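Supplementary Methods. Inverse-folding protocol.

Structures were first reduced to a discrete structure-token string of length 99. This string, shown here, constituted the complete conditioning input.
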């Protein structure tokens, strides 16, 4: 099972029952579920501010923490830029400037 399917199934119980059919149809209407689809999709159907106050089990806390702190954060533009710039050598470390 892919990460996106786990997120879909995990957040399914937090969707308002009136919008559950719409939630299912939108997810199954797409062939591929990338981060550009999943992040706004879940945020559209789940009220995070309300649900974070009522979390009572460790598994539910892990699901919300993973989505908010790991899944959403790893695809931010800042995180991507930091990952590429950390491999750039500093000027003091470069030997090609001096012969």
């Amino acid at each position: 099972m892919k990460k996106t399917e786990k997120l879909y199934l995990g957040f399914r119980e937090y969707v308002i029952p009136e919008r559950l059919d719409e939630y299912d149809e939108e997810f199954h209407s797409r062939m591929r579920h990338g981060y550009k689809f999943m992040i706004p999709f879940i945020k559209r159907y789940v009220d995070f501010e309300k649900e974070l106050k009522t979390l009572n089990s460790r598994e539910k806390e892990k699901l919300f923490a993973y989505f908010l702190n790991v899944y959403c954060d790893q695809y931010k533009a800042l995180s991507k830029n930091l990952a590429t710039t950390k491999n750039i050598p500093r000027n003091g470390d470069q030997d090609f400037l001096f012969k």
